[in-house]
Amino acid sequence: MTISFPSFPANWKVPLFWLQVDPSQAGTVTINHPVMLIGQKLAAGSAANNVPVAVGSVAQATALFGAGSMLERMVNRFMAIYPAALLYCIAVPEPSGGVAATSTITPAGTATASGIIALYVVGQLVNVPVSSGDTAATVAASIAAAINAVSTLPVTAAVNTGVVTLTAKWKGTTGNDIVVMDSYLGAYGGQVLPAGITLAYAAGTAGVGVPDFTSAISALGEQVYDFLGLPYTDTNTLGLFDTEYGFGDTGRWGWMRELYGAVWSARRDTYANLVTWGPGGNSAVETVLGFEPASPSPVWEWAAAYTACAVQGLANDPARPLQTLELVGILPAPTQSRFTVAQLSNLASLGIAIQKTAPSGNPMILREVMRYQVNQYGQPDNAYQLATTLYTLAEIFRRMKAAITSKYPRFKLADNGTNFAPGQAIVTPNVIKAELVSEYAAMEYDGLVENSDAFVKNLIVTRSTTDPDRVEVLYPPDIINGLRIFAVLAQFRLQYPANT
């Protein structure tokens, strides 16, 4: 027998026709690009802490994590942008010794005309009716009642001597990101306070504590989560996830696991503080979107929206830039409080992803920058500057692995030039090289790589000189790039000379 059958025995004697199906030449790489969102739940939620759970709807998120919880609102914001994702969530316990953040709203005056207070709590509009003659105490009671009537808000409200106190529904520093304001759209948007009423906002008790993510990271196991949405950017937390997703031997990009993926987050801060914070990190697997302090929307919703846009774009084509994709439902900072173009350019150079407001009024991604800035010697390095680099590499590596493992799962290995019968399950370095070249050509056609001639020239496939069962490959892909800058020198004339 010259053909290598996977299992049909060579000494079979019963006639006549016997067929064995072999799918090794048919399959193509497939992956659903699973997404993981990590955040806090409420006691009312049925989900167990530190256990991945698939989430298919906002209603399910409400039951699992509690109405108004961080995770419920993250799921809501994510699904408003990309509901087709294969989505999982992990709820983490409240930080030990944590404190819930509080803030206050203090009405003053007496309404001289009826109207509506357009109150925004974490970017969600809460209309508070006010009647002519309402006192400050009456307005305070109306504000508290209106807030408590919306179960999906992340705060509860209580009134004491005319002061409304808002308390975050969970403990921890993220509660400090709850922004409360009124009349976001201003007079031109039809939002003004009722005549005679003013509102004063003040911070109360600061939220304290950050969850322990050790068990949550362990719960990720060996499952693929190509996109992980994370609304925490403290040094310790980012360090833990950098190790989990990193290029070390035990990281998701390491040779032992080959799971790939990246962490998507966001950070609210001033330009000056972000300029200081940016150089303090150097992760090739984390991207943090910077946004202005005046944005009403909270960090966990910014992070969820950024993650959703990433899935929307990169799951379909890992090499296409994310610029112009909109974070639907996120309220940007007012015009006068937004970063300037020069500031955005500087932030991008310091490892901070950047956004600006689109004509639609939604923030849109400008540059999906990774936190990576320098190599292991501290020298400037742009190897992992962009998220598209990572996701394109992951697609390339997965296609290569699928081709080799599908077509040569139980093959024998021989030297180049070996004379063997056609159909034998034998492979040589040259056969493998031809397979890699063919796969690279297909990826070039699909817009993932370029310069096939240079790739072939630099590709090395050889048999190990110390282990006869081992093939060694130097694989040099040239990944395709994105059109990100269109530079024009407009060298105008008032009049071209007559002889030109």
Keywords:
single chain, 500 residues, alpha/beta, 6-stranded mixed beta sheet, 4-stranded antiparallel beta sheet, 11 helices, 19 strands, elongated
Description:
Helix 2 (70-81) runs parallel beside helix 7. The radius of gyration is 29 Å and the shape is elongated. Strand 12, helix 6 (271-277) and strand 13 form a beta-alpha-beta unit. It has helices at residues 58-65, 70-81, 136-148, 214-220, 235-245, 271-277, 299-314, 341-348, 387-407, 429-445, 452-458, and strands at 35-40, 53-54, 87-92, 102-108, 115-121, 124-130, 155-160, 163-168, 180-182, 198-203, 227-229, 262-268, 286-291, 354-357, 363-367, 412-413, 426-427, 460-463, 471-474. The mean pLDDT is 96. It is an alpha/beta fold. The strands form 6 sheets. The chain has a 6-stranded mixed sheet. A 4-stranded antiparallel sheet has the order 7-8-4-10, with helices on one face. Strands 6-5-9 form a 3-stranded antiparallel sheet, with helices on one face. The chain contains 11 helices and 19 strands. The relative contact order is 0.10. The N and C termini lie far apart (78 Å).
Provide a short characterization of the protein structure.
The chain is 25% helix and 19% strand.
Q: What number is the mean pLDDT?
A: 96
Largest sheet: 6 strands, mixed
Give the H and E element order. EEHHEEEEHEEEEHEHEHEHHEEHEEHHEE
Oligomerization state of this entry?
single chain
Number of E-type strands: 19
Helical content class: 25-40%
Estimate the strand proportion: 15-25%
Low-confidence stretches are none
User: How far apart are the termini?
Assistant: 78 Å
Rough shape? elongated
Describe the strand arrangement of the main beta sheet, using strand numbers: 2-3-1-11-12-13
Radius of gyration: 29 Å
**Treating each run of at least 4 consecutive H or I residues as one helix, how many helices?**
11
Based on secondary structure, the structural category is alpha/beta
